[in-house]
Amino acid sequence: MTTLLVRVDDRLIHGQIVEAWIPYLNINQIIVADDEVFHDPFKKKIMGMSAPPMVKVLIKTVADAVNYLKNDFLHPISAFRTMMLVSSIEATDQAVKLGLPFNRLNLGNIHYQSGKTQISASISLNRPEVSLLDDISQRGISIFVQPVPRIPPQDIFPLIRKKFMLSPESKG
Asked: pTM above the 0.85 mark?
């Protein structure tokens, strides 16, 4: 299996994924790693119907998704070109701590809520999320903002430093 993209997107499968990322990366498998969706039959059905028919959709808990991908990396010959979607920084941190094998994290959409600071047009974070991103980065994972492929990726930390007015020495 080739995991081509691990992405945080609080909408999970939606138009940007279907219209931009799937054709750009020639994705034929999406893993939605979300405990809430996994336990909600209605949301599960909606997610399954949101992808084009030629794309296999697996909906798993975060822990099961990590185990699935870890086992598949032991057998790298596969026809699947995979995108993993998680809905939050917290779920991503959980996946990292469970040993998800990846080295680049795309931040696609994290909507504004009270208590968050808008970092870019599509990303809003609070301080606990910034701290988790710093921890994830310390594990050697590159973190970038890129809503769609036609927009160049931006390193998240200069954006965080600017908005949270942190010193240049601070990663997060």
From this structure: yes
